[in-house]
């Protein structure tokens, strides 16, 4: 269990949050123009990295807001917590 | 062993009486159960797990493999308590585990005679076939291989959880932990110092007390004896406002970001009474952590190395110096390092005859020189190969070593011994470091793994870091404490360390690698993991059978899988594997350390979260009426829903038949308050609904309701419900009871992450509204009798909405029907729910209004072929599969899941489709989940066509009805299909039909 800095509420225990996998996967503008493979990329395919990862979280037992974490999946170090509209924080130097 | 005349850090003025295995004994305050038993000459404490060999106390710490007892009786009884860690208290009652009928005469020790039949993996290989016998096997295995027994009574004690944020958590209150706390504490750090023992001090308490210490070799710290210095240091720490001491607290879990969990045993020296807090589970968040967890001494593997009377050397020293015990007349010591000579000197001081068998060819330890001068017999370059005796050791057999460390077979020597103390090195206690994903490094000079790198803010000090002598521990603790304070940004004059006088430490410590002694010609068992009865032969067997990885060998042989988690034996297992594989130890690797460090009680884990505080329930506002009227409830998520209302003598089937007929003929009343409700407001509501639902929402007028299904992006149905337009920019959405939270979550996710500029607010109002549904031909008459608002079929037609005042209560009426009858779903603010229900019951009395539960609701909707999401669908059902293609807009450019409906797999032919089924015999009700096949007899393996999703006996139709998903179902209308009962091969013939069984035209609901 780790501590997460909700961009709206501040630091809270992980048990208040729910994670929803890889961040920055935008729903295609016009799905009807995509072929099956392209659509499947959006629906099914996600990166599963060891190291720094941008992922979506929701403060489900708190304010209910969605945000993103830049978290190292190997060490659970968290480099940044940011709102969906915020500019992307840079990847930390160390790659684990 | 027995109590000596003097010495020890116990209070000889405070005798304590206790019971063990039905006998009364006396010990002293400051004893553990183990030391008190040894003082009373009780050596045999249990039987081994598999072979039921006699076992005695082997250690004086958390690594103890044998000294596990069943503590106390009845509701207070706890299994697997370590006698070595349990402080003695007045009235303590304990007994041995894993022996039947008793520890001295164990019938199952017959397993020893058959031990050749019980090799590693025996259970895996043998108890597999025939499978019908498994129940019998299991009973036998459980009886013969059990540990303690958990009480089946409710736990009368109290537990709680505490969250603690601190600058520095120091784990271990021994020499290193104390100097670390002193240094960091003096620099102002906020510290928690936790130690697993009631009496902090660690190995400092294994040094002789001042009254018996030998001035020539005694350790002195600032001119005090180690115990005196420890007392003084604890007093200083106690006085520091920034330091919190937590004795009797085992830190058992170390997770990422310095999240640590520990269990504190409160009032350990009080017999449990249910009157007070028994344990606190601490959850720490520490900016810095210092591990000063010490090291665990291990003994080598040799023949019959599990005999009672064999003890690790440092533990024996602890029993002599800490608890004031006499060891016995003849003591043999087997060692590969210098630490055992400290034990030898203490033994010589209390008058034992000491035989030392040293695996090394030489040592320059001053302690060894002194021991020799004082009469110890030292046999260098030798190894203990076996020992004999029954319930306790009597003789020790040793051999000289050849230059290549093989045995000189002709050199066998036998000495008599009451105790054999063993030491083959100190294994740093790196469990927590490793749990936190810290890496380890093998150090040849100490023959053990020490902490290497870690991503958490953690430091290691003392013997857990490989600093094995007392002076090294004091020094490294001090340095580490200063380093931690620096990392915390604290500055100040560097505190100074006490002056240490430790004559024995001032030479090079030499450890000669030793894990297993070569076997002499005998076939004696050589134990690697004493608690789990796993042997060197078992490890060799595992290797021969192809288990290469240390993790697999562990699981196959169960080495390290007992409650002690192999604290004594794991390093030997690795050494033996390295030897067999001909690889250096670091290449063999090490098994993963997992929490907990020592067993944790369920009481502590649960804390205050018990009963109602653990499992919350959601009653509806009308709940108590249902209770008062004998309803049987079902759990739907946290909700309690009335399932049916049995009248005298009715079972569920009869009650449901009666309730269903009442709805079809007069009127039923149903508590639908659990229905998910979401209030949608804002100018972009229509846009949102058009994306969420498959059908079009642009033209729904104010005051009208519409049914819709929602898909996930996979194109599969995930919820359904009716949404009503209350006002131009105001909608009331209903969801399934179970799907309420996920639908709101889905809406919020899309609004927050995809459509951030859309102006819609979505609010859960599930709990704000009580919902009472009136269904049946008389529903309108009853409702009209309590309201002035016109609700006739013209004013309030099917799928219309109005506000009304019902029996004085402001209400929303939705004319929607889940039964196919004339129906009104009446929403009132939750606090009026019961009043509304009661008013309707009074108004409906003359019509025979009948309350019905969820079971009847399910039956009635099945007669109409309405799906229940999650029962008739399972996440793999598209709208077309469910026969709901008419609900999918062909004109809308996009909605969630739309594109997936064209995916090759969603659009293919031959998918399972929802159909109805009737049984041809007109009476069999198939169990839900029944698989359906094309032939009247089953001939497995064969493909099924699908399965029954809903199944009932319809009272209004007077025959069984079922819904099913069937491959190519809609093309099979009128076909005969079968269900075969695997128990008796009986077969039921069924006819595929339309899933709408009752009132196909739907005229009744519109009436």
Structural write-up:
The complex is a heterodimer of chains A (96) and B (1007). Chain A is mainly beta. Chain A contains one helix and six strands, in the order E-E-E-H-E-E-E. Chain A has a four-stranded antiparallel β-sheet with strand order 3-4-5-6, with no helix packed on it. In chain A, a hairpin with a 5-residue loop joins strand 5 and strand 6. Chain A starts with a strand and ends in a 14-residue tail after the last strand. With 1007 residues, chain B is of the alpha+beta class. Chain B has five domains: 117 residues, Roll (Ubiquitin-like (UB roll)); 215 residues, FAD/NAD(P)-binding domain, CATH 3.50.50.60; 126 residues, FAD/NAD(P)-binding domain (3-Layer(bba) Sandwich), CATH 3.50.50; 190 residues, Gyrase A, domain 2 (2-Layer Sandwich), CATH 3.30.1360; 142 residues, Gyrase A, domain 2, CATH 3.30.1360.120. Chain B is 21% helix and 28% strand. Chain B has 24 helices and 51 strands. In chain B, strands 9, 10, 12, 13, 14, 15 and 29 form a seven-stranded mixed β-sheet that branches. In chain B, helix 7 runs parallel beside helix 8 and helix 17 crosses helix 22. The mean pLDDT of chain B is 93.
Unreliable residue runs of chain A = none
- Assigned CATH architecture of the domain at 19-25 and 45-85 in chain A: 2-Layer Sandwich
Structural class of chain A: mainly beta
Overall pLDDT of chain B: 93
In the CATH hierarchy, the architecture of the largest domain in chain B is 3-Layer(bba) Sandwich
Structural class of chain B: alpha+beta
What value does the Rg of chain A take, in angstroms? 15 Å
Which outline of chain B best applies? elongated
Rounded to an integer in angstroms, the radius of gyration calculated over CA atoms of chain B is: 38 Å
Indicate the overall shape of chain A. globular
The chain pair forming the largest interface, with residue counts per chain, is: A-B, 28 and 24 residues
* Beta-strand content bin of chain A: 25-35%
Oligomer: heterodimer
The helix content of chain B is 10-25%
The end-to-end distance of chain B, rounded to whole angstroms, is 94 Å
Sheet having the most strands of chain A: 4 strands, antiparallel
């Amino acid at each position: 269990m780790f501590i997460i800095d909700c961009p709206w509420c501040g630091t809270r225990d992980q048990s208040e949050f729910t994670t929803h996998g890889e961040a920055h996967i935008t729903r295609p503008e016009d799905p009807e123009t995509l072929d099956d493979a392209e659509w499947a990329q959006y629906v099914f395919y996600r990166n599963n990295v060891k190291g720094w990862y941008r992922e979506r979280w929701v403060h489900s037992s708190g304010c209910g807001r969605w945000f993103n974490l830049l978290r190292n999946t190997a060490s659970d170090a968290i480099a940044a917590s940011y709102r969906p509209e915020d500019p992307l924080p840079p990847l930390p130097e160390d790659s684990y | 062993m027995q109590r000596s005349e003097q010495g020890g850090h116990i209070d000889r003025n405070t005798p304590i009486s206790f019971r063990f295995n039905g006998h009364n004994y006396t010990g002293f305050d400051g004893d553990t159960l183990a030391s008190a038993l040894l003082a009373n000459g009780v050596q045999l404490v249990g039987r081994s797990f598999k072979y039921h060999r006699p076992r005695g106390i082997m250690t004086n710490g958390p690594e103890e493999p044998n000294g596990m007892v069943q503590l106390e009786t009845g509701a207070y009884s706890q299994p697997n308590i370590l006698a070595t860690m349990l402080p003695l208290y007045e009235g303590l009652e304990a007994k041995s585990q894993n022996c039947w009928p008793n520890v001295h005469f164990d019938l199952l020790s017959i397993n020893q005679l058959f031990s050749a039949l019980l090799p590693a993996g025996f259970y895996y290989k043998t108890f597999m076939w025939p499978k019908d016998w498994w129940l019998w096997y299991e009973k036998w295995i459980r009886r013969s291989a059990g540990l303690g027994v958990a009480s089946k009574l409710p736990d009368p004690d109290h537990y709680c959880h505490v969250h603690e944020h601190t600058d520095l958590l120091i784990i271990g209150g021994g020499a290193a932990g104390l100097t670390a706390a002193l240094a960091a504490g003096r620099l102002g750090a906020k510290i928690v110092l936790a130690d697993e023992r009631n009496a902090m001090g660690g190995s400092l308490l294994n040094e002789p007390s001042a009254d018996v210490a030998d001035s020539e070799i005694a350790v002195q710290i600032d001119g005090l004896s180690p115990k005196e210095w420890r007392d003084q240091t604890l007093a200083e720490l106690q006085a520091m406002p920034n330091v919190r001491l937590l004795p009797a607290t085992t830190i058992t879990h170390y997770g990422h970001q310095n999240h640590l969990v520990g269990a504190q045993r409160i009032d350990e020296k009080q017999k449990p009474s249910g009157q007070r807090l028994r344990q606190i589970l601490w959850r720490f968040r520490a900016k810095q952590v210092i591990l000063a967890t010490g090291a665990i001494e291990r003994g080598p593997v040799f023949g019959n190395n599990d005999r009672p009377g064999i003890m690790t050397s440092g533990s024996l020293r602890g029993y002599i110096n800490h608890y004031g015990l006499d060891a016995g007349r003849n003591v043999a010591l087997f060692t590969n390092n210098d630490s055992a000579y400290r034990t030898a000197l203490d033994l010589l001081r209390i008058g034992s005859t000491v035989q030392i068998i040293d695996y090394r060819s030489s040592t320059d330890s001053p302690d060894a020189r002194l021991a020799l001068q004082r009469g110890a017999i030292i046999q260098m370059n030798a190894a203990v190969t076996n020992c004999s005796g029954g319930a306790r050791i009597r003789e020790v057999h040793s051999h000289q070593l050849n230059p290549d460390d093989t045995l000189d077979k002709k050199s066998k020597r036998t000495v008599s011994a009451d105790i054999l103390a063993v030491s083959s090195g100190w294994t740093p206690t790196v469990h927590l470091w490793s749990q936190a994903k810290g890496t380890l490094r093998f150090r040849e000079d100490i023959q053990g793994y020490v902490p290497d790198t870690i991503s958490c803010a953690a430091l290691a000090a003392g013997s857990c870091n490989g600093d094995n002598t007392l002076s090294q521990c004091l020094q490294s603790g001090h340095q580490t404490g200063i380093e931690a304070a620096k990392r915390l940004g604290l500055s100040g004059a560097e505190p100074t360390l006490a002056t240490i006088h430790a004559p024995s430490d001032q030479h090079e410590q030499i450890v000669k690698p030793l894990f297993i002694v070569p076997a002499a010609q005998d076939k004696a068992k050589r134990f690697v993991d004493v608690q789990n009865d796993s042997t060197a032969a078992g490890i060799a067997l595992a290797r021969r059978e192809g288990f290469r990885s240390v993790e697999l060998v562990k699981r196959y042989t169960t080495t390290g899988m007992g409650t002690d988690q192999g604290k004594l034996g794991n390093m030997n297992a690795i050494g033996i594997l390295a030897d067999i594989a001909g690889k250096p130890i670091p290449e063999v690797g090490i098994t993963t350390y997992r929490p907990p460090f020592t067993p944790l009680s369920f009481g502590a884990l649960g804390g205050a979260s018990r009963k109602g505080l653990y499992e919350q329930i959601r009653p509806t506002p009308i709940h108590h009426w249902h209770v008062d009227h004998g309803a049987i409830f079902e759990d739907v998520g946290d909700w309690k829903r009335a399932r049916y209302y049995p009248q005298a003598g009715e079972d569920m089937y009869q009650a449901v038949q009666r309730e269903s007929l009442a709805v079809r003929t007069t009127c039923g009343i149903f508590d639908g308050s659990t229905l998910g409700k979401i209030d949608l407001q804002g100018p972009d509501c229509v846009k949102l609904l058009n994306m969420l639902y498959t059908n079009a929402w642009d033209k729904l007028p104010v005051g009208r309701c519409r049914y819709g299904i929602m898909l996930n992006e996979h194109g599969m149905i995930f919820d359904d419900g009716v949404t009503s337009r209350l006002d131009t920019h105001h909608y009331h959405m209903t969801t399934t009871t179970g799907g309420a939270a996920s639908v709101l979550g889905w809406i919020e996710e899309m609004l927050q992450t995809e459509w951030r500029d859309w102006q819609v607010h979505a609010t859960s109002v599930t709990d704000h509204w009580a919902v009472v549904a009136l269904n049946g031909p008389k529903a309108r008459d009853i409702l009209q009798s309590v309201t002035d608002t016109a609700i006739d079929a013209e004013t309030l037609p099917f799928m219309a909405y109005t506000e009304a005042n019902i029996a004085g209560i402001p209400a929303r009426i939705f004319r929607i029907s889940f039964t196919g009858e004339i129906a009104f779903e009446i929403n009132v603010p939750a606090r009026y729910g019961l009043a509304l229900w009661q008013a309707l019951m009074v108004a409906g009395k003359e019509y025979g209004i009948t309350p019905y539960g969820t079971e009847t609701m399910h039956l009635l909707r099945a007669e109409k072929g309405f799906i229940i999401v999650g029962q008739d669908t399972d996440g793999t059902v598209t709208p077309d599969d469910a026969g709901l293609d008419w609900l999918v807009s062909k004109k809308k450019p996009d909605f969630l899941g739309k594109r997936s409906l064209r995916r090759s797999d969603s659009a293919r032919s031959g998918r399972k489709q929802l159909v109805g089924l009737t049984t041809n015999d007109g009476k069999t009700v198939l169990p839900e989940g029944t698989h359906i096949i094309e032939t009247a007899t089953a001939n497995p393996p064969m493909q099924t066509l699908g399965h029954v999703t809903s199944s009932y006996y319809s009272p209004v139709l007077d025959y069984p009805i079922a819904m099913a998903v069937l491959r190519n179902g809609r093309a099979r209308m009128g076909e005969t299909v079968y269900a075969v009962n695997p128990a008796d091969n009986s077969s039921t013939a069924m006819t595929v039909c339309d899933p709408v069984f009752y009132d196909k035209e739907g005229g009744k609901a519109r009436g």
